[in-house]
Amino acid sequence: MTPHRPYCTCWPGATVWLTGLPSAGKSTIATETARRLEPDFRRVEILDGDHSRALLTAGLGFSREDRFVNVQRIGLVAEVLARNGVLVLAPVIAPYADAREAVRKRHEQSATTYLEVHVATPVEECARRDVKGLYARQATGGLTGLTGVDDPYEPPTRPDLVLPAHRQSLDESVDALLRLLADRGLA
Asked: Structure pTM?
C-alpha cells in the first residue's frame, strides 16, 4: 500500500489553458510542468484534450458545435478543480476564440484564475512532427477537418503567455510557464 502523499494547500487553484495546433507541444509542456511542480507537493491535474475525448466528451464529433461543447465540458471540470485549489493544466486545442472566451468567463464568474497560453508552433513544424499521424492522413485524403489545415484555428489575440515551442527547448518553455505562474502567485 502506497502511503498518501500530503499536498500543500498554500497555493490557490487556477486553470492554465494551453492552446495551439495538433503536435504543437501542448501536452509535452503540460506534463513536464506538472513533473517539475511535483516536489513542491502542488496539487496539479492535467486535463488533456485527447484523453477527455475518450470519456468526458465521448460521442462528440468535430463540427464547430461539437468542438464548442467539448471545450465547455473540459472548461467546466477545469473551473471546478481550480476553484477547489487545484492547478489545472489543460492542453486542449480549443480552435475557436469564442469557446475559450466562454471558459474564461466561467472562471471569472467564480473568481477563479484562468491563464491562456498559446503554444505557437507553426503548422509546418507541427506537420513535420506529426506526433499522431494526423497531418499525413490529411495529406492523403484520409482525414478532413484538421485544425489549422482545412479547419480553422483562431489564435489567441491576448494570451497571458506565448510559447514559441519550435524555437526553444522544452526546458525553456516550461521555465517560461513556471515564471508566469510565479509572477501570478500560483507557484
From this structure: 0.91
Contacting residues for 26 by C-beta, under 8 A, at least 6 apart: 18, 19, 20, 49, 91, 92, 93, 119
Element (H, E) at 128: helix 123-129
Query: Are 114 and 5 in contact, with CB atoms under 8 Å apart?
Result: no
Q: How is residue 117 written as a grid cell?
A: 497560453
Interacting residues of 51 by C-beta distance below 8 A, sequence separation 6+: none
Instruction: Tell me which DSSP letter residue 118 carries.
Output: E
Q: What is the DSSP letter of 60?
A: -
Instruction: Give the tens place of pLDDT for each residue, 51-61.
Output: 787 777 778 88
Q: How far apart (Å, rounded) are the C-alpha atoms in residues 72 and 70?
A: 6
At 156, phi and psi to the nearest 5?
A: -60, 140
Residue corresponding to grid cell 471545450: 71
